[in-house]
Design brief:
- This protein has 231 residues and is mainly α.
- Helices cover 81% and strands 0% of the residues.
- The protein is built from eight helices and no strands.
- Helix 3 runs antiparallel to helix 4.
- The N and C termini lie far apart (42 Å).
Length: 231
């Protein structure tokens, strides 16, 4: 029995460790995608796209480990919340990596034409998005609900910068229709970064649930009572 418990503890630790490894790769991917955009390096952008399979593979590994923990150990309370949270975080991280791939695809398209404008707000958005992802993962490993909550308002800055970029690029398109394609691609890039912030927010909300057993995902909406069905 002691060996079973030891194996279960090691399994839980392994799950948390793999989430952090996946998160580190995703953070790096965001940075590489941004660098490819700013430096107009299509080969670097293609490398980001080609590496996406690493993240997918780790997500599948985490899913397998979590299913093993649920089936063999049948964890209770905090460990159960960690396992279910890890599965959801892995999904969020995989989506973030996909958004970095999308950004890299727009980079390749943008590099076919002259640069429309200097990059100012987009690199700031990328830095904030990276900070949110890093902080969310830190909160996960520390089971720190307070830290997770403190990161969520950062998403508002990404929303504001997206609106600012949209207004600025809209003026380019109105003044010169020849800029429409490039401007739209830059808007997509900003939107991808805003979506990364949304995914990081999801991770923070899951960390609060893991640490406190409290659902903050939909304020004002009460979870169903035990045994109650929702339509």
């Amino acid at each position: 029995m002691e060996n079973v418990h030891r194996h279960g503890d090691e399994l839980i630790e392994n799950i948390a460790g793999r989430v952090l490894v996946m998160g580190g790769i995703v953070e790096e991917t965001i940075g590489r995608a941004l660098e490819a955009l700013v430096s107009r390096d299509s080969e670097a952008a293609r490398a980001v796209i080609a590496d996406d399979g690493r993240v997918d593979a780790i997500e599948l590994e985490i899913d397998h480990l979590c299913m093993e923990a649920l089936a063999l150990r049948q964890p209770f309370a905090s460990d159960l919340r960690l396992v279910t949270t890890a599965m959801k975080i892995a999904t969020d991280l995989e989506r973030i990596a996909d958004l970095a791939v999308n950004l890299s695809e727009r980079t390749i398209e943008l590099n076919v034409e002259p640069q429309l404008k200097p990059f100012i707000d987009i690199p700031i958005m990328a830095q904030r998005a990276q900070e949110m992802v890093h902080g969310a993962l830190d909160a996960f490993v520390r089971r720190d609900a307070k830290l997770a909550r403190s990161l969520i308002p950062m998403d508002d800055e990404l929303d504001r910068r997206l609106e600012q970029i949209f207004r600025e690029l809209l003026s380019y398109m109105i003044e010169d229709p020849a800029t429409i394609t490039r401007a739209m691609r830059l808007i997509f890039v900003a939107k991808y970064l805003e979506r990364i912030g949304d995914q990081a927010t999801n991770i923070c909300e899951q960390v609060v649930y893991m640490a406190e057993g409290r659902v903050i995902k939909h304020p004002g909406v009460l979870p169903p009572e035990r045994g109650e069905r929702t339509e």
